[in-house]
């Protein structure tokens, strides 16, 4: 049986404890929104203000304002049109269900019909043959499975996980072996054009390039009387949670300790105190903040310029963060 190979995944999430991998850069960018909370693609329609993780979701949303419906019903004679393929599929299943092709059981005396061929095959297995309908086509293998996904997963036992890089002969026995090989031998390296510093993915490179910008977009603390500002939404959320809302959801589980922290990373750094091997935590960058804001003549909307003026938060509290 000929099967479609799984798309090669070469874009890996670099956040700690996250093993997500994707075969397209835009998919990784959309995934990173879950970690960063940023939605960089904003609707251009006046007065809307909604933002999205990917250009695709932004473009799909903007169809609401334009009134355009590019996806027409595929059933002959139907003039309905929709903004997304999902809405079109829902329409077809509801409005034209009686017109769809039926898959009928050929066993004499049965006569049951199904909307999908895989439903018919499952029926044949359960009611008539008592054998799983999907058999492995590898020579000498008699394994059978109840659905295509299980068969596809099994077939990888025979062929392994080959590296898709041109000229690379490596084949991993498991998906984990392939991921390890990819990270060690074919890691994507992106270089900053300003200082030649290298990064593992485009998101970290974009964050770093803010250092070289003449102006920076900042996030001001929304709490009344607090003048603190930060270069990332993550740092702003950390500030609000610790200084203003006194949130400490990450509690040390070591017997007799009980200390609590605002950020998961802070708990991880603290945990080395209880480490019998005395391992030192990795050196982390200091939290970047902008304590003084001063408009510049060349300042663009939404941007600010760093100055040396100092503003102190009006709600000073000593918090572990």
UniProtKB/TrEMBL annotation:
<feature type="domain" description="C2H2-type">
    <location>
        <begin position="71"/>
        <end position="101"/>
    </location>
</feature>
<feature type="compositionally biased region" description="Basic residues">
    <location>
        <begin position="280"/>
        <end position="290"/>
    </location>
</feature>
<dbReference type="InterPro" id="IPR013087">
    <property type="entry name" value="Znf_C2H2_type"/>
</dbReference>
<keyword id="KW-0539">Nucleus</keyword>
<dbReference type="GO" id="GO:0042254">
    <property type="term" value="P:ribosome biogenesis"/>
</dbReference>
<keyword id="KW-0805">Transcription regulation</keyword>
<dbReference type="GO" id="GO:0003677">
    <property type="term" value="F:DNA binding"/>
</dbReference>
<dbReference type="GO" id="GO:0003723">
    <property type="term" value="F:RNA binding"/>
</dbReference>
<dbReference type="GO" id="GO:0008270">
    <property type="term" value="F:zinc ion binding"/>
</dbReference>
<keyword id="KW-0862">Zinc</keyword>
<dbReference type="GO" id="GO:0005634">
    <property type="term" value="C:nucleus"/>
</dbReference>
<feature type="region of interest" description="Disordered">
    <location>
        <begin position="268"/>
        <end position="293"/>
    </location>
</feature>
<dbReference type="InterPro" id="IPR054599">
    <property type="entry name" value="TFIIIA_Zfn-C2H2"/>
</dbReference>
<keyword id="KW-0804">Transcription</keyword>
<keyword id="KW-0863">Zinc-finger</keyword>
<protein>
    <recommendedName>
        <fullName>Transcription factor IIIA</fullName>
    </recommendedName>
</protein>
<feature type="domain" description="C2H2-type">
    <location>
        <begin position="103"/>
        <end position="133"/>
    </location>
</feature>
<feature type="domain" description="C2H2-type">
    <location>
        <begin position="190"/>
        <end position="217"/>
    </location>
</feature>
<dbReference type="InterPro" id="IPR051061">
    <property type="entry name" value="Zinc_finger_trans_reg"/>
</dbReference>
<feature type="domain" description="C2H2-type">
    <location>
        <begin position="250"/>
        <end position="279"/>
    </location>
</feature>
<keyword id="KW-0479">Metal-binding</keyword>
<keyword id="KW-0677">Repeat</keyword>
<dbReference type="Pfam" id="PF00096">
    <property type="entry name" value="zf-C2H2"/>
</dbReference>
<feature type="domain" description="C2H2-type">
    <location>
        <begin position="219"/>
        <end position="249"/>
    </location>
</feature>
<dbReference type="InterPro" id="IPR036236">
    <property type="entry name" value="Znf_C2H2_sf"/>
</dbReference>
<keyword id="KW-0694">RNA-binding</keyword>
<feature type="domain" description="C2H2-type">
    <location>
        <begin position="11"/>
        <end position="40"/>
    </location>
</feature>
<keyword id="KW-0690">Ribosome biogenesis</keyword>
<dbReference type="Pfam" id="PF22110">
    <property type="entry name" value="TFIIIA_zf-C2H2"/>
</dbReference>
<feature type="domain" description="C2H2-type">
    <location>
        <begin position="134"/>
        <end position="160"/>
    </location>
</feature>
<keyword id="KW-0238">DNA-binding</keyword>
<feature type="domain" description="C2H2-type">
    <location>
        <begin position="41"/>
        <end position="70"/>
    </location>
</feature>
């Amino acid at each position: 049986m000929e099967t479609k190979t799984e798309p090669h995944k070469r874009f890996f999430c670099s956040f700690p404890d996250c093993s997500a991998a994707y075969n397209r850069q835009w998919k990784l960018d959309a995934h990173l929104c879950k970690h960063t909370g940023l939605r960089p693609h904003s609707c251009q329609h006046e007065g809307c203000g909604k933002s999205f993780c990917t250009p695709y979701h932004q473009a799909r949303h903007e169809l609401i304002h334009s009134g355009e419906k590019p996806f027409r019903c595929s059933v002959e004679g139907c003039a309905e049109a929709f903004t997304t393929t999902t809405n079109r599929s829902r329409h077809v299943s509801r409005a034209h269900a009686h017109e769809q092709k039926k898959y009928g059981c050929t066993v004499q005396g049965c006569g049951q019909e199904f909307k999908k061929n895989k439903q018919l095959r499952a029926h044949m297995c359960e009611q008539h043959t008592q054998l799983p309908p999907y058999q492995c086509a590898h020579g000498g293998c008699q394994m059978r499975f109840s659905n295509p996904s299980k068969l596809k997963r099994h077939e990888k036992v025979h062929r392994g996980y080959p590296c898709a890089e041109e000229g690379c002969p490596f084949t991993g026995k498991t998906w984990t072996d392939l991921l390890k090989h990819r990270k060690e031998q074919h890691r994507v390296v992106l270089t900053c054009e300003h200082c030649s510093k290298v990064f593992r993915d485009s998101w970290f490179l974009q964050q770093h390039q803010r250092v070289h910008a003449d102006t920076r977009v900042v996030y001001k603390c929304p709490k009344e009387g607090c003048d603190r500002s930060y270069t990332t939404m993550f740092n702003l959320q950390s500030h609000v949670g610790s200084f203003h809302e006194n949130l400490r959801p990450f509690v040390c589980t070591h017997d007799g300790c009980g200390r609590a922290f605002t950020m998961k990373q802070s708990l991880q750094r603290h945990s080395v105190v209880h480490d019998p091997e005395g391992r030192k935590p990795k050196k982390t960058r200091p939290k970047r903040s902008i304590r003084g804001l001063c408009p510049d003549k060349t300042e663009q909307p939404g941007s600010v310029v760093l100055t040396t003026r100092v503003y102190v938060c009006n709600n000073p509290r000593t918090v572990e963060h």
